[in-house]
């Protein structure tokens, strides 16, 4: 049995994920220099057979710097000291990212400003105008 990442009704098999273990950046002394604990997880959104088409479209149209031009999501996890925990963290973040694409955004209903709000805005503009006009010194004699 292969492990799967489950997000709602979507199941992503392990075979669609590419993991690479690299050395972590930041503090940690000799341990950081010797052990490759950071995880770089890659998931090809554009050609994944597990994702329904509407979800794929929503994920690819998001303006996210983690998604490459080819439609590959690259997650880097190096928060924890162990490889296993970083791996788990990257998978949780992948699941969260996919979950964000499950919900279709509501269509915006165009509305007009009310008459009262227009009047309040114009009254505020008139007030500012009179304050500024009062600052100009015309009687220099």
The count of helical stretches stands at 4
Structural class: alpha+beta
- Total beta strand runs: 5
Proportion of residues in β-strands: 15-25%
Q: What general form does the structure show?
A: elongated
EC number: 3.1.1.29
Domain Prokaryotic-type class I peptide chain release factors: 23-39
Pfam families: RF-1 (PF00472)
Protein name: Alternative ribosome rescue aminoacyl-tRNA hydrolase ArfB
Structure characterization notes:
The protein is an alpha+beta fold and 141 residues long. It has a domain at 4-100: Double Stranded RNA Binding Domain. Helices cover 38% and strands 19% of the residues. The chain contains four helices and five strands. It has helices at residues 30-34, 53-61, 83-100, 115-135, and strands spanning 4-7, 10-13, 17-22, 38-44, 72-77. The protein has a three-stranded antiparallel β-sheet with strand order 3-4-5, covered by helices on one side. Strands 1-2 form a two-stranded antiparallel ribbon. It is elongated and about 80 Å long. The relative contact order is 0.15.
Which labels suit this protein?
141 residues; alpha+beta; Double Stranded RNA Binding Domain; three-stranded antiparallel β-sheet; two-stranded antiparallel sheet; 5 strands; 38% helix; elongated; hydrolase; peptidyl-tRNA hydrolase activity
